[in-house]
Amino acid sequence: MAGAYAIIEPSIFANLKSQDEDSWFNRPMRWAQLTLVENDPGQFDPDFWLSYFKKIHADGTTLSAGGVVAYYPTDVPLHHRSNWLGNTDPFGYLLEGSRKMNMSVIARTDPHAARQNVYDTHPDWIAVTADGKKRRHWANKDLWVTCALGPYNFDFMTQVNKEIMERYQPDGIFSNRWAGHGICYCEHCRKNFSEYSGIDLPQNSNRYNPSYQKYLEWSTNRLKELWIMWDGVIRKEKPSSRFIPNGFPDKVVTGQLSDIVFTDHQARSGTTLPWSNGKVAKELRASIGMKPLGGIFSVGFEEQYRWKDSVQSEAEIRIWVAEGTANGMRPWFTKFSGVLYDRRWLDIVNKIYQVHYRNESYLRNISPMATVGMVFSEQNRNYGGEIWQQNNGDHSLGMYHALIEDRMPFEMVNDRLLDAEHLKAFKLLLLPNIASLSTEQCTQLRKYVEGGGSIVATFETSLYDEEGRRRIDFGLADLFGVSYDKSIEGPMQNSYLRLKNDPVTNQFHPVLKDLEDAYRIINTINQVKVIPRASFPSPVTLIPSYPDLPMEDVYPRTPETDIRELYLRDTGKARIAYFPGDIDRTFWQIMCADHGRLLRNTIRWALKEEPIVNVIGPGVIDVTVWRQKDSMTVHLVNLTNPMMMKGPFREFIPVDAQVSIKIPEDVKVSGVHLLVSGKKTDFKNNEDKIILNVSQIHDHEIIGVDLV
Ligand SMILES: [Zn+2]
């Protein structure tokens, strides 16, 4: 099946380290992608594009080479030369022009579709639907969808990759839509899956179906095999060159196999929040470390109707890219079609790239400096079937949003990378309903706490093992100090949280800051019933549900209980906070400010120290902090906008902020710059901090702090 090419683990190759400054992986800071359409050759002006790349200081480019259409005079049988190609070689021309400007060059292929002659010659290369029919392309009825896991990719595309490498020696080959589109029932997939698993292909992609879970395991392995095989062929022609998949289903494997990674999260659609681009960057960085990470952004709308030639507003494009840059991604614009219709985006991308180029040395990050880590999970596809587990992703969205509202710098943490090395930067870990944790993962978290690390966890965290089997008790029961009481309550109508001061000292616990006069706030929607195994303070207790109609009946039947809704404890140097309620998910769904405050206060209490950056002032600002060789930077992305929770930004609403930044002990500050606006700034030293005012932040300001 693997054709003439053996499977070779990449580690045996002489390995250029991705962080080497001069490697082609690390050198480019700004990428430009031109995806040609079939009738571009002879019609578009390649010199216009080369001069645009030069103008915007792009230092890496991705150019259309082959796959469904070849943009060079290919000799691979069935590799379709553009009908407009004639005797030209637009890929070769653009590649040479880019090389003359010292750009890194990646060749782009797209293997997901093929023509009738491919179908006629190799019908077994075409994907098959569940009812046994060859699969027509959903968007273009002249084309067929190819099988990603059979000989079309393993044999035919391998020849294409080899030819591109032999003739042009690009720095890498980037493959779009290489991983298939749903389950393929072709003869190869049926046979290979049955040999692997002993069962037939699943009839649907219901994620709770065990045979579908097996299918995901098999197809992921098969794609990994394909990746390693193509990578081997590519490196054989040029050892520094790489295969770069556009997406792979497993982030940990992505980190193991890649020297450079690109995210394909091009713009928002529907109600995607603008910080979503930063979240994608954080999740990948948690899995790939500081390997170069490019953020592909389109300049158009990303909606189901696929207006691929559209152009968005300037504010929309800028805020999306700012989120990526603030989170350590290197911008990569992508444009489809060499002939331009709406040219408005050209100036917008130029502006973004000029600011980036001017401040490049402050954007070559060595490491993030945030000390708060939020755990996310890719494991356990079994979890989520119960009624109280629906919209499970809302837990992390709510926690993420609470952190953004608090302007808290934080990183994401991959739950499969909880070893001491990956956790050493963090003083606090957040576990937003990380329900499935293996015994080993629980042990890793216990060690983290023994070493002084603190934890805030919610709802069913650790109540299931990695396979999704419910435990008798929480895997982290000893850390939480509570045990599972065998039921989940909810959805709860008209229930409240009673907020109380300490009866002995008369003081309010710090988790109740700005809630001192509340007496009570709304409860979460669902909660885990638990039995405390230790003694706890009781700043937050339950007021059980009571009737909400008729209005005459709306009075609490049990106005006070001693059932805690937040379990707070000190253990050694660590602090542990456990919410039995789904406060993070409820916050996301209801957006009650009180829940945001309670989460903020609890996170700050558990952190036990001031965050590395504090930002005071109005508005919604995403804050990230980075270390470079001779500096540190604080990124402020201004998300303040009436359109923030829905559609595209129309304009910016500038805000002022007072920022205090903790300076590492071993260095001194020699200068402070506002890198985006270029405005002069004064700063005050205050013990281990500097304090400065930043006025009129539009989309993005970067505070550059020179260190000696
Ligand atoms: Zn197939």
Q: The biggest beta sheet, please? A: 8 strands, parallel
Identify the bound ligands: zinc ion
Structure class: alpha/beta
End-to-end separation in angstroms reads: 57 Å
- Give the beta-strand count: 30
Low-pLDDT ranges: 1-16
Number of discrete helical segments: 16
Based on CA atoms alone, the radius of gyration comes out at 27 Å
Mean residue pLDDT:
95
This entry's quaternary arrangement is single chain
Could you give the order of strands across the largest sheet? 7-6-3-2-1-10-9-8
Give the overall form: globular
Description:
The chain is built from 16 helices and 30 strands. Strands 7-6-3-2-1-10-9-8 form an eight-stranded parallel beta sheet. It has a six-stranded mixed beta sheet with strand order 13-12-14-15-22-21, with helices on both faces. Helix content is 26%, strand content 22%. It is globular. The chain is α/β, with parallel strands linked by helices. Helix 8 (276-288) packs parallel to helix 9 (314-326), helix 9 packs parallel to helix 10 (345-358) and helix 15 (583-590) runs antiparallel to helix 16 (593-607). Residues 1-16 have low confidence and may be disordered. The longest helix has 28 residues, at 210-237.
